[in-house]
Input
Amino acid sequence: MGRLIAISNRTATQSSNRAGGLAVAVWESLKSTGGVWAGWSGDVCDGEPGEPQTLEDEGVEFLLTDLSREEHDSYYLGYANSVLWPVFHYRVDLASFDSETFQVYAAVNQRIASLVAPRLQQGDSVWVHDYHFLLMGDSLRRADWDGPIGFFLHIPFPAPEVFRALPEHPWIARAMCAYDVIGFQSEQDRANFTRYLVEEFHGEEGEDGEIAVFGTTVKAKAYPIGIDAEGFKQASESELAEQAEARIGKFLGNRLLVIGVDRMDYSKGLPQRFEAVGELFDAHPELHGRVSVTQIAPPSRSKVEEYKELRIELDRLAGRINGDHGDLDWIPLRYLARSYQREELAGLFKIARVGLVTPLRDGMNLVAKEFVMAQDDEDPGVLILSEFAGAAEQLTAALIVNPHDRGKLAETIHLALTMSLEERQYRWRSLRDIVTSQDINWWRARFLKDLQGLQPV
Ligand code: ADQ
Output
């Protein structure tokens, strides 16, 4: 089997950065075949970026480039995070459309392609990740690479009506069709992309996800991403996990824990979740002093204006709910704007009676799967999951909610808190079976089979 060449905006050069789902999956794939992992170094330079840095670890070569200040502001903060991220999460209202940032986005795709292309050899397969590099397939073709290129989109692909809000949508779609295989998180995302090509460009659907369009054929399929299920279970049994359980245990006493863990992002539905918690305590005074809700939400992308506003909104809502309902010996809603280690999170999930995963839109949502794997077989907690997370297509035994319906969400939290042990076990076993059988290795193998199957034998 030939080498794998991965391209993603951020890489995981140090083993400590390889704890997240994507990083583990890409790293394991690269290690087994040998290969190159290219992306941004994380540094911003004055003037033009110089020669890329190369590092080597366990047979994997890292190829890292700095971004110029303009590239960082226009490609990364601008087009990727202030246009594509909001639009693909159905928040057209938050997008800062600007054709100049698109030019820089396209130029960065081309520049990184031109760094990677000379290192490609016959037999290699290229695997590009996420919305930062929608144009990378086309850029690599322009740099004369004619071997297989696959792309995996970690975030949702919106309905065609929303995608068309992007002024550049025809260019993006045409460039995406330079990929041989495009992977989506869910059937819904795949269907949105396919419908867009059929409606807009008279694409014709063939077998096994193939679409004939623009004089070429692209394979578009759902490959729902999984987690390192066994590894997460072990993390939940680690010493660090026990320490975290003990620390929160002191504060909890006999109270039941309801937990949420999310990057602080407007797609995660945090204000709606906080308001539902307020409604829960309004409607159920018998829960006062008996339930503790803890939300862990480390700030992300704090340079983008909408993220600053979200922080202010969450501070305000948490303050109000605790002011209305809290007591001398009870804080109803604890909100911690910081991050924890994977093992610590696993310990907190394990001790929780309810996991709240209620994004307004999410490609997959790995936290839902992590919560499942951390549960105690004998006394599992209940997962409450948004119908708008990609994970909802797989995790149908969760309590599925519409996160916009705050009254219903409050009642669903109540239902979860009062659910019988028998029903909790029954639902959890079904969830565990899916998360275990459709784990990160399953995801990687399915995608690479389609991508590497394109190589001449
Ligand atoms: P994210 O939007 O970052 O990922 P998610 O899938 O939930 O969302 O993954 C977050 C990861 O970060 C999880 O592994 C979680 O444990 C960890 N994490 C979250 N909060 C943390 C905290 N306070 N401290 C430490 N770790 C924390 C994007 C897409 C998702 C898609 C993934 C993978 O937006 O839809 O599921 O990529 O494809």
